[in-house]
Amino acid sequence: MTTREARPRRPGEFALIAELFAPLSRGFPGAFGLTDDVAVLAPRPGHDVVLKTDSLIEGVHFLRSDPPQTIGRKALRRALSDLAAKGAEPEVYLLALALPEWPDSGWLRAFADGLAADQEEFGIALAGGETDATPGPVTITVTAIGYTPEGELVRRNGARPGDTVFVTGTIGDAAAGLLLAKGKVQASSAEHEFLLSRFRLPVPGLSFGRAMRKIASAAIDVSDGLLADLGHIAETSGVRIEVDAARIPLSEALGEFSGADVDARARAAAAGDDYEIGFTAAPTNEPEIAACARETLTEVTAIGSVVAGQGVRLLNASGQQIVVAKRGYTHF
Amino acid sequence: MTTREARPRRPGEFALIAELFAPLSRGFPGAFGLTDDVAVLAPRPGHDVVLKTDSLIEGVHFLRSDPPQTIGRKALRRALSDLAAKGAEPEVYLLALALPEWPDSGWLRAFADGLAADQEEFGIALAGGETDATPGPVTITVTAIGYTPEGELVRRNGARPGDTVFVTGTIGDAAAGLLLAKGKVQASSAEHEFLLSRFRLPVPGLSFGRAMRKIASAAIDVSDGLLADLGHIAETSGVRIEVDAARIPLSEALGEFSGADVDARARAAAAGDDYEIGFTAAPTNEPEIAACARETLTEVTAIGSVVAGQGVRLLNASGQQIVVAKRGYTHF
After folding, report:
1. B273 vs B222: CA distance, rounded Å
2. pLDDT score, position A10
3. Cα(A144)–Cα(A85) distance, rounded to whole angstroms?
4. How many CB atoms are located within 10 Å of the residue B212 CB?
5. A56, pLDDT greater than 80
6. Judging by DSSP bridges, how do beta strands A240-244 and A311-315 pair with one another?
7. Residue B11 has what pLDDT?
8. B38, A79 Cβ separation under 8 angstroms
């Protein structure tokens, strides 16, 4: 762990960071207790190493008012969600932290506590890190490292005409949670809590991702918006994806909050930060998908189909295209 | 490659980034042309995977006025320098880029061109990346991934009393280059150019690092300041390191600029951004070290010795300790 200061901070604060983070590397001998320049991974035989880097920026992906326990966890979970969608199993992560003056030692402790909780939950460890002072916002860059059995990564490019399109979980909750976090809207207490937690603490579908590894023809982490992300599958697979708007799964809380008509579902499909898995599979695999869903306690919904052509289309009950004003994620 | 926007930017700019960066992934099939969620590395048999993450922040590690060609290269080279000091061979890197509004398309092109030049020079490729908009400074996080033969990483913790302490290259140039870059001081044209290039474009000692892998007892990337970094070797090895101030190697340009007396050498040893390799080895290995230095065209200087005790001491010609006001790197 190297720490560098752009300007004088509270005395001893970088020492505190080292003290808080070193225990997070326990359980991974190749981290050397964060006392060396690098980390070393002895790769798992018969497996590929899967790599993902992802940043979480104050004022872009989280709010200064968010509880610090959830901020590190969200940074970590976003990268884990990418691994999940590819059927990978996470092993370790690297952390690059750019800190302005405002986070105090209490914030830092809570941030590290959050990471510790998630390490426990997902069976991973901190392999290495770097802390720098910045004149800008808190910027957290996580590089997640995991494994898939050799050659078994689920790519974006395998969708074929005739495949069914699925998505895990529910869509649009986090976008509503963000509005609530910013105090722009109100909701009942139970809905508020649920939607806010979906914004602050996404749940990467690691178990389901591993289970569907040999069944899905293509998959993607739904983070930029369901339609935008299915568009990436369509583009790399050279196909068109048609989504039945009425089948886009909404949570009960979001239904209460925003309604559950086709327009509300279309808005949800154009929002972001869902961290669900969008995937395609041959219709003959549907029983196996249902079994994976049951075994991993994952809600999975068939929402459309893959056809010849290009692009992604959202269709109403009459099969007419719904034009969505803005596809994909817009941060605040 | 995923790009996310915090606010409207110039139209098409994120498409430009994708267009500029995709070619950088050629030569690494596991990058999938940056069209998937993750990158995949098929590990090299008999080798460990070496991991390092490192950030370069505008106003902290580089100036907005620095040529954009050198900025990406510096970010990359800082991480490669860590790999070099450990005897590792780099293979690929991941890039997380946080961009405010000011870098225009010309800047982005030049930034990518710089990376392309370094990829060619160091035989590496871009494996994956992420671009986010930020309300703060340009923040570039590189995660470098390389290999060492299984178990052959050169650690910080192997220095033993009786070992000799060495450093590659010259010390203090980059700190002087930074002062020049900020226009705080003046130097002759030739000195100016040399010292500025040492600040903007460090040269990771990859060849020497690999050559000394079985000879060095401990090694570290000298980036936070020679004394601070040798202090890390002393601490993790449980020894004391004594450095003879008169033997700290200064470049001719720095000698002209700052003088070359013991005080100037002490200041250089407390500066930072050198990206040289500090290492220790048994005196019996000195002929082999000299051979490695010749073969890799690397200047190597014996600057001190490892003794029982703790900490690092800078000594004058009489063997008395020189007290250095500030050890280690202070960014501007």
Report:
1. 7
2. 52
3. 13
4. 28
5. yes
6. parallel
7. 52
8. no
Could you tell me where the DSSP H helices lie in B86-104?
none
Chain B closest-CA separation from residue A25 CA (Å): 14
Helical spans, DSSP H, in A214-313: 226-237, 252-258, 262-270, 286-295
Residue of chain B with shortest Cα separation from A38: B52
Q: Give per-residue pLDDT as tens, A200-231.
A: 999 999 999 999 999 999 999 999 999 999 99
pLDDT for residue A267 is more than 70: yes
Q: What is the DSSP-derived secondary structure letter of residue B62?
A: B
Distance from CA of A322 to the nearest CA of B (A): 24
- A59 Rama class: left (phi>0) / alpha (psi -120 to 50) / beta: left
Do the Cβ atoms of B330 and A36 come within 8 Å? Answer: no
Closest by Cα among A218, A200, A240 to A78: A200
What CA–CA distances, in Å, run from A189 to A84, A130, A257?
31, 39, 11
> Which residue shows structure tokens 């339609």?
A227
Give the pLDDT band of residue A15 (cuts 50, 70, 90).
Answer: confident
| Side chain identity, residue B18 | A
Interchain pair A35, B2: CB under 8 A = no
Q: Would you say A126 and A91 are in contact if contact means Cβ atoms under 8 Å apart?
A: no
Confidence class for position A328, pLDDT limits 50, 70, 90: very low
Least confident of A30-39, A142-151, A178-187, A227-236: A178-187
pTM above 0.90, yes or no: yes
Closest CA to A80 of A275, A329, A212: A275
Contact (CB, 8 A) for A206 and A89: yes
Interchain pair B136, A133: CB under 8 A: no
